[in-house]
TrEMBL record:
It comes from the Eukaryota. Residues 353-603 form the BPL/LPL catalytic domain. PROSITE patterns: BPL_LPL_CATALYTIC. This is Class II aaRS and biotin synthetase. Residues 305-316 have a biased composition (Basic and acidic residues). GO terms for molecular function: biotin--[biotin carboxyl-carrier protein] ligase activity. One of its GO terms (cellular component) is cytoplasm.
Length: 692
């Protein structure tokens, strides 16, 4: 789900990473995802498929036989030059370069060259040691070696010896001593490296690249210039009149018009009244407003976002107050107030989907009561970071949290992202799920409605692990429904253990040979009540539905190959004709209805996953897959057998003949692996201990 990666290695200057992320977010949100990336991920993970631009913030300088250079680790030579050779782009901030002729006989991934650039480019006729980093252009036989530019050095030289490389000056700045190159784009193989010289570290956070900025303010002019350069390298910043998504907007609390009274029940459980008020918790303070007042606040904040810039850092500075507008008696806001998600259409499609899947009509169904916001912090954190809020929810009313844009989306472990347009992101909260026959909620009936609870039963704590498998299966099976992709295209949507959604092209019986790309993921958190007799379950999901190029999404599943180039997201090769019916509203409704029916059976069976085990393994990518297991010492080759029916562990069986150890004793029996604590590198065929 990521297409702008920002290098976050130890070579980055202390404040440069935060500054770079902040400025990029202010210029490019919501059109792109922006995420830090480490050296280890660059070297070991398949990041190139979803990366449009790899960005290096200002780096510490190093020294080599050619003098001072930017401290990019030389071990990244191979992977970055391969990325460029394949058509990728690299942007270096506060940096320049020196031209060095020749690859030193080492070719891509092993060249030497380092260099210097002060406002433009310089030359160095000698080859450099292999302990330095350089970009290699096979066409011209030249290497370009990046160096870091201290602020004071930008005016020291105007050497513009760029004629020997395939380059284009993108921007210049005017100083007292004349013009200086501010940005230079150089072709390397089929890709491009862009050097940006001006220093961004000292820009005032009050300045923003808006139509009202003037070049008389150096800070504003640099941001305007950076926005221009980003557009010149193929990025598409949002229109300045489109409004900002770097500030949270008020949310609606509403329910289907078919079952009025659900919203009032939820509000009364939180506040003790139905007329608004304040609910304070650990992570957020929730301010509830009656409908007319809440609508006025939303419209005022949207107008403010259109006319004034904001300087929120999406990764650090989220207001803790959430404004909630209460929609009473089945009131549904108009599409004018929710332009990115048509709530009336959604409720109509949900009603159809629940009838199609034969969901019970006498219960408060999944997705029939929801919080919706156009710009939210995190749908998951709304529940699992606010324990009082979570424990105060009515047990018989599942609640959905839905946001068109997330500023602090969460994945497994420490993974985080800023969501792009077209990504469906939501969290389903099922309050107070009984874990034992002694739970007081096992026969709960919502006293203020005529809807009975789900089938009276309970799920033993050891079976909670299967919820992520069950929901992942619901998502994948829903994609094969005609309302989303249909059975033919939907067969390409597959599961990666334990909770990722992939698109897979190739022979379904040989998925290991198919081309694959991730389009979604699932996160399940469980909050146990005192005594341990019940737990509130929060299921978070992010799924690329209508994301445009360069992200991959359901909208583009019908392509003959994932590697097909897409230069224009609106070109005739889009799936608009074939998948014109595909929508965020219909996709969400179909997924929730499918899962609701499965959940009813899962709860009624006491948490048994047996009836779905075969369907799950039919949809996953790992049947009989041979992988290298590094969680044991020494590592060994194992074959995936399935999932254990008791605790949901990944079951593997060691191979009889281990490579490199022909005389080694073979371990007897199965090796079972927990979902948490282990990471499955699908592309590398590797299972390893999950990092921090």
């Amino acid at each position: 789900m990521v297409n702008l990666l920002v290098y976050s290695g130890p070579e980055v200057l202390p404040s440069a990473l935060r500054t770079t992320l902040s400025h990029l977010a202010r210029i490019l949100l919501p059109n792109y995802t922006i995420q830090p990336i480490s050296v280890s991920v660059l070297l070991s993970q398949p990041w190139t498929a979803n990366c449009q631009v790899l960005i290096f913030p200002a780096l510490k300088s190093g020294t080599g036989s050619a003098g001072i250079f930017a401290g990019i680790p030389p071990r990244l030579n191979g992977v970055i030059n391969d990325f460029l050779e394949g058509g990728g782009q690299v942007l270096l901030l506060n940096a320049a370069g020196r031209i060095t002729r020749g690859f030193g006989g080492r070719g891509l991934g092993g060249m030497g060259g380092m260099g210097s650039f002060n406002g433009a480019f310089g030359n160095n006729a000698s080859n450099i040691d292999s302990d330095t980093f350089a970009f290699a252009d096979r066409t011209t036989g030249l290497t370009i070696s990046p160096i870091s530019l201290p602020e004071s050095s930008q005016k020291n030289s105007k050497d513009q010896t760029t004629r020997r490389i395939r380059s284009e000056v993108l921007a210049e700045t005017m100083e007292q001593d004349g013009s200086h190159i501010a940005a230079l784009k150089c072709q390397i193989g089929s890709g491009f490296v862009t050097f940006w010289a001006p220093n961004l570290e000292n820009l005032s956070e009050e300045n923003s690249p808006s139509s009202t900025s003037t070049f008389s303010d150096p800070s504003s002019s640099r941001l305007i210039l950076l926005r221009y350069v980003l557009s010149r390298i193929g990025l598409k910043p949002p229109n300045s009149t489109a409004g900002s998504v770097s500030r949270l907007l008020p949310q609606f609390l509403l329910s289907t018009p078919d079952k009025p009274g659900l919203v009032e029940t939820v509000v009364h459980g939180l506040l003790g009244s139905v007329h608004g008020g304040v609910f304070q918790d650990t992570h957020n303070t929730f301010e509830f407003y009656e409908y007319d007042e809440g609508l006025r606040i939303l419209r005022q904040m949207k107008t403010h976002n259109h006319t004034e810039s904001v300087d929120d850092d999406p990764s650090h500075a989220h207001p803790s107050t959430s404004h909630i507008t209460i929609c009473p008696n089945g009131t549904v806001p108009s599409v004018d107030d929710t332009p990115l998600f048509d709530l009336s259409t959604y409720f109509n499609l949900l009603r159809e989907a629940r009838a199609r899947d034969e969901c019970r009509r006498d219960v408060s169904g999944f997705g029939e009561t929801l919080f919706y916001g156009q710009v939210v912090g995190s749908t998951q954190s709304m529940f699992d970071k606010n324990p009082r809020f979570l424990s105060s929810l009515v047990p018989s009313i599942p609640i959905l949290s839905l946001g068109s844009h997330q500023l602090a989306g969460r994945g497994r472990g420490a993974n985080a992202w800023i969501s792009p347009s077209g990504c469906l992101q939501f969290s389903l909260c099922i309050p107070k799920v009984p874990l034992s026959p002694h739970s007081p909620y096992i026969n709960t009936i919502c006293s203020s409605s005529s809807f009975s609870s789900l089938t009276p039963s309970y799920i033993p704590p050891s079976k909670l692990v299967f919820i992520q498998y069950l929901f992942a299966l619901a998502v994948v099976e829903a994609c094969s429904h005609p309302s989303i992709l249909g059975p033919t295209l939907g067969a390409n949507v597959r599961l990666k253990w334990p909770n990722d959604i992939y698109v897979c092209y190739g022979n379904p019986s040989r998925p290991e040979r198919a081309e694959k790309i991730k389009i979604g993921g699932i996160l399940v958190s469980t909050s146990f009540a005192p005594g341990g007799h019940e737990a509130s379950v929060v299921i978070g999901c992010g799924l690329n539905v209508l994301c445009r190029h360069p992200l991959f999404s359901l909208m583009r599943v019908g392509k003959p190959t994932l590697s097909t180039p897409y230069r224009d997201p609106c070109c005739p090769t889009s799936m608009k004709d074939e998948l014109g019916h595909l929508s965020m509203e219909g996709t969400l409704a179909t997924i929730l209805a499918r899962f609701e029916k499965m959940w009813e059976e899962f709860l009624g069976s006491g948490g048994s996953f047996e009836r779905w085990m075969g369907r799950y393994q039919d949809k996953w990518l790992h049947s009989d897959q041979l992988v290298r297991l590094t969680t044991v010492d020494p590592p060994m080759m194992v074959r995936i057998c399935g999932i254990t029916p008791d605790h949901g562990l990944l079951r593997t069986l060691p191979e009889r003949n281990q490579p490199g150890h022909p005389g080694r004793a073979i371990q007897e029996g199965f090796i079972d692996l927990q979902p948490d604590g282990n990471s499955f590198d699908l592309m590398a065929g590797l299972i390893k201990v999950k990092g921090p």
